[in-house]
């Protein structure tokens, strides 16, 4: 088993920054899509709200949650990354993120393309913590699916 | 003289390393390690007399049946049951509780009845009663907890245990925070109003003497793997008169006496509740675990764990600015389970840090989400000890927690 160094996830500047200064933390009123997720194994929570513009793109996002640093940093990064995307693009990004976390070793280009989210690939070295990074995404997918009706 | 080092030698796994560090196993409330005597009992069965029970006329089947029933007798004696017939094998404590919920409760709980539980219940002693209450138009009442030490508010018990109470279903020792509930007193009050009493002893029976006569309960649940035994085997104690009046739970082979195309009659206790080929090997392994515990002596196990708890509570005192430890401070009122929370670091991040030091603790809600809400947290980190843990291991835990607090105190956690 690969032994991840704690500093990889707890001293990474990007992860730390999102953890300390979560983006889009205000709860969105009049959201078009809202979703709440809970990890049944640990009780961690994610709450997401999205407002769409006339073109069906994500215009505003709200993210709140209770949980560990990985869970919280992921939610913050996600809230930035999905702005400006259509719902199918949001789903494609989610698939890409899952692939980065659970697929074969991700190539550097993939990490670069994912921006801040790419920093979370280090969580792969802590297999039991991968689920902490996936909660925000599964919550997002549930919201998009429900929003589609 | 309690020789913890001698005990440790019986547990092969305790000498392994994790990330090149000695394993410090403090997750005993989740499951316990197995002594070689238990492992050997499983091997002996499979290598020496593997056969189905209660049906063969051949030697192996007779031997297997004898050992299997002997194990039942050991469980009965261990908890002070009058007869082995009052011990029903199940897969685990959850199945034991569901057995009561699907049979006795379905037959006896009526509209307007009340089922009384505590805030400390494991989901397995709460969720089945939610269904019973819904099905029957009964209601669930939760005994109140005192904020100062997270113990039950015994002064208010009479508001909750009333003539409407049909069932008292309470946990003896909380797996979430280690508190020991005054179950004798609760059972006495429940009896006084004519209620049936179920005690979830899954967490207590491995760690202290439990006696169904002294507790005066009707049902009691046990789980083998939480008391040095294998996984996949648990037990339900039921008072004979009640078990005899109950309908079977699962139906099929072994549990019947005579079968016609359109009907069947039931076998005697305990087989009436044991349909199908049972978990023979693990029942025998459970028996070996009880032999082991009895050889050490449950009073000695309890004394050792009280000393560990006192040591841990004293050590955590040093961190009281940063860490909340839940439950009473008196080691006599709790098991050796230290459940704690810090605003500096989330329990999962702390758990990952401890893991890298070779220390196994559980982080999360411990299948007690309502209790976590009462405590005002989503999760805790929980160190739970057993007869093989040492004060040095507690010191290693506290040292690692201290370093974790420093590591995360910049807001990383």
The level of helicity of chain A is: 40-55%
CATH architecture of chain A: Alpha-Beta Complex
Strand order of the largest sheet of chain A: 1-2-3
Chain oligomer state: heterodimer
Count of helices of chain B?
14
Strand order, largest beta sheet of chain B: 4-10-9-8-7-5-6
Whole-number count of domains of chain A:
1
Count of helical stretches of chain A: 6
The largest pleated sheet of chain A is described as: 3 strands, antiparallel
Please, could you describe this protein's structure?
With 149 residues, chain A is α+β, with helices and mostly antiparallel strands. Chain A has a single domain, classed as Sufe protein. Chain: A. Chain A is built from six helices and three strands, in the order ααβββαααα. Chain A has helices at residues 6-10, 13-20, 69-81, 87-102, 108-113, 130-148, and strands at residues 33-38, 45-52, 58-66. The longest helix of chain A is centred in the C-terminal third of the chain and has 19 residues, at 130-148. Chain A starts with 5 loop residues before the first helix and ends with a helix. The relative contact order of chain A is 0.20. Chain B is of the alpha/beta class and 413 residues long. Chain B folds into two domains: 4-28 and 297-408, Aspartate Aminotransferase, domain 1, CATH 3.90.1150; 39-294, Aspartate Aminotransferase, domain 2, CATH 3.40.640. Chain B is 39% helix and 15% strand. Chain B contains 14 helices and 17 strands. In chain B, the strands form five sheets. In chain B, strands 4-10-9-8-7-5-6 form a seven-stranded mixed β-sheet, with helices on both faces. In chain B, strand 11 (256-259) and strand 12 (264-266) form a beta hairpin. In chain B, helix 2 (36-49) runs antiparallel to helix 10 (280-296). The model of chain B has no long low-confidence stretch (mean pLDDT 97). The chains are: A alpha+beta (149), B alpha/beta (413). The A-B interface holds A 3, 6, 10-11, 16, 19-20, 41-45, 66-71, 126, 128-129, 132 and B 19, 346-349, 352-353, 356, 363-365, 369, 372, 378-379, 407-408, 411-413.
């Amino acid at each position: 088993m690969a032994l991840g160094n704690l500093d990889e996830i707890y001293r990474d500047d990007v992860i730390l920054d999102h953890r300390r200064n979560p983006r889009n933390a205000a709860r969105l009123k009049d959201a078009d899509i809202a979703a709440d997720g809970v990890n049944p194994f640990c009780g961690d929570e994610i709450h997401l709200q999205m407002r769409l513009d006339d073109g069906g793109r994500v215009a505003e996002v709200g993210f709140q949650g209770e949980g560990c640093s990985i869970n919280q940093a992921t939610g913050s990064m996600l809230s930035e990354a999905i702005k400006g995307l259509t719902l199918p693009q949001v789903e494609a990004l989610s698939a890409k993120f899952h692939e980065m976390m659970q697929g074969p070793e991700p190539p550097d280009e993939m990490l670069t393309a994912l921006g801040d989210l790419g920093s979370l690939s280090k969580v792969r070295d802590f297999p039991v913590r991968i689920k902490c990074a996936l909660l925000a995404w599964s919550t997002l997918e549930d919201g998009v699916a429900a929003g589609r009706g | 003289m309690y020789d913890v080092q001698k005990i440790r030698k019986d547990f092969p796994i305790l000498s392994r390393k994790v990330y090149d560090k000695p394993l410090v196993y403090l997750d005993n409330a989740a499951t316990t390690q197995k002594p070689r005597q238990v492992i050997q009992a499983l091997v002996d069965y499979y290598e020496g007399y593997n056969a189905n029970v209660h049906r063969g006329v051949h030697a192996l089947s007779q031997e297997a049946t004898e050992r299997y029933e002997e194990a039942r007798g050991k469980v009965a004696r261990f908890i002070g049951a009058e007869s082995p017939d009052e011990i029903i094998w199940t897969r685990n404590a959850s199945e034991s509780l569901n057995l009561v919920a699907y049979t006795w409760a379905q037959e006896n709980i009526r509209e307007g009845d009340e089922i009384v539980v505590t805030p400390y219940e494991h989901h397995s002693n709460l969720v089945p009663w939610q269904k019973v209450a819904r099905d029957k138009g009964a209601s669930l009442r939760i005994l109140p907890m005192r904020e100062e030490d997270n113990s039950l508010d015994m002064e208010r018990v009479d508001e909750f245990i009333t003539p409407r109470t049909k069932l008292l279903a309470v946990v003896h020792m909380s797996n979430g925070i280690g508190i020991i509930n005054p179950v004798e007193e609760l059972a006495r009050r429940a009896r006084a109003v004519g209620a049936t009493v179920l005690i979830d002893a899954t967490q207590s029976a491995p760690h202290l003497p439990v006696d169904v006569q002294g507790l005066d309960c009707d049902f009691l649940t046990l789980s083998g793997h939480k008391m040095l035994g294998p996984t996949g085997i648990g037990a339900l104690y039921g008072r004979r008169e009640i078990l005899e009046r109950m309908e079977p739970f699962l139906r099929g082979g072994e549990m019947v006496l005579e079968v016609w195309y359109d009907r069947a009659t039931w076998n005697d206790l305990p087989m009436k509740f044991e349909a199908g080929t049972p978990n023979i090997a693990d029942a025998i392994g459970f028996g070996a675990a009880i032999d082991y515990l009895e050889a050490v002596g449950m009073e000695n196990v309890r004394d050792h764990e009280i000393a560990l708890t006192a040591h841990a509570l004293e050590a955590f005192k040093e961190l009281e600015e940063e860490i909340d430890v839940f439950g009473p401070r008196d080691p006599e009122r709790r098991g050796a389970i230290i459940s704690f929370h810090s605003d500096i670091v989330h329990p999962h991040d702390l758990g990952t840090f401890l893991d890298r030091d070779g220390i196994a603790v559980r982080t999360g809600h411990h299948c007690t989400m309502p209790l976590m809400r009462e405590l005002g947290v989503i999760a805790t980190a929980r160190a739970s000890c057993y007869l093989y843990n040492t004060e040095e291991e507690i010191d290693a835990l506290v040292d690692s927690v201290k370093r974790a607090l420093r590591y995360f105190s910049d807001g990383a956690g």
